[in-house]
Amino acid sequence: MKQLEGTEPIYIQIGDWLENEILSGRVKPEEKIYSQYKLSEIFGINPATALKGLNLLVEKGIVYKKRGLGMFVSSEALKLLKKERRGQVMTEQVRALVEEAKRLDVPIEELIKMIEKEMNKGGKRNDSMR
Amino acid sequence: MIRCDELTKYFNGTRALKNCSFEITEPTLTGVIGVNGAGKTTLFKSLAGFLKPTSGMPSLFGEEAFQNITVAQNVMLIEEGMQFYPGVSLYELLDSYQQFYEDFDITLAKGLLNYFNLPGEARYERLSKGMASTFRLILALSARAAVTLLDEPTTGMDPSVRKDVYELILKDYIKAPRIILISSHYLGEMESILDHILLIDEGRVLEHGALEEFQSLFVAVKGSPEIITSLEEKLQVFEGKDFGPGIRQIVVKREEFLNLHLWDEVKESLTVNSISPEDSFIYLTRRKGGGIHELYDS
After folding, report:
1. How many angstroms away from the CA of B191 is the closest CA of chain A?
2. Pick from B196, B214, B232: which residue ends a domain?
3. What range does the domain containing B191 cover?
4. Rounded CA gap, B152 and B186, in Å?
5. Which of B186, B214, B242 is the last residue of a domain?
6. ipTM > 0.85 for the complex
7. What is the mean pLDDT of residues A13-36?
8. pLDDT over 70 (residue B293)
């Protein structure tokens, strides 16, 4: 059974985990996503809680319901998720990074060089992210 | 299917339950939370029809609960003090309960006895505290009663067994959805399998709602002592803690905090975290008089 950590409500953690499953490609667009009962089994949580987590994704348009068949990843899922992550998560990380750089007196040119170095390490992966 | 309307119960002049009102109409795994003596067991016994209310009769499936055979056939209550017919084996006890409960799953019961290493030929009176708890739980789950009341089901069990127990309850609930109420004064270990919480304090129903509502009741706000102290003047503070000279943290109600409509600059300097249902429960039921910190810091 997978462990859930953190102080966020369980259904939000489930939502995050599902989004990561989609972003990582482990569940692809138009594929069926984990059902509330499967999630209940994986995490040892109440299926109603699991459903709440799934519905978070339905609200965002990342997942949709097919009558009688279950929940599927929408074709726009990746586009929506990347846009959202760029807006929220990346902005947060950039802010934290800049704050730390200021604290340590790292000049902007050096910071940019550090970022470039890290991005170039990826090699082929960089192109696919464009 | 369960309806309580101002349920009140007096015991020798003490009010064990005061105007309890709530309703449950769908299958659920609800945690009935409260400190020792809050009234949980009295509530369960009243719902099962064993105790006559002083006022406000609970109704199950539209029938009055007290000494009602229809209710009795559809309710299963287990609690630590319950008695069983003496001198018979566990197998015989299972058999007799199978006669009473229409949907009793005897195969499941025997399988569970095996899984938990409980010898079917043993006598209930000879079992250790933990094993007796396990047997009562096996009985309760196998009965597959429409309303299943588990009063402190993990009493006396080893920690490793307790984990299994919650997993088992969840599995059985999914297999046979019904109304299951689990009472405990320790929410932490069973939180994840619940969908609702019923909070009892001093005989009253303090809160009844979805698990997530509990998680959003309180927040811990951390920031510089100056800002935090200024917030303390405007909010009801449930706990205040100093993390060294630069940081102070307070626990407040989320709604109150949001209603302050703080400026963005102020908001950005603060760290806001959710509070687990376990801690929410503690803050809601803690007696007034300050926390331990005040005791030691003054």
Report:
1. 8
2. B214
3. 2-214
4. 9
5. B214
6. no
7. 95
8. no
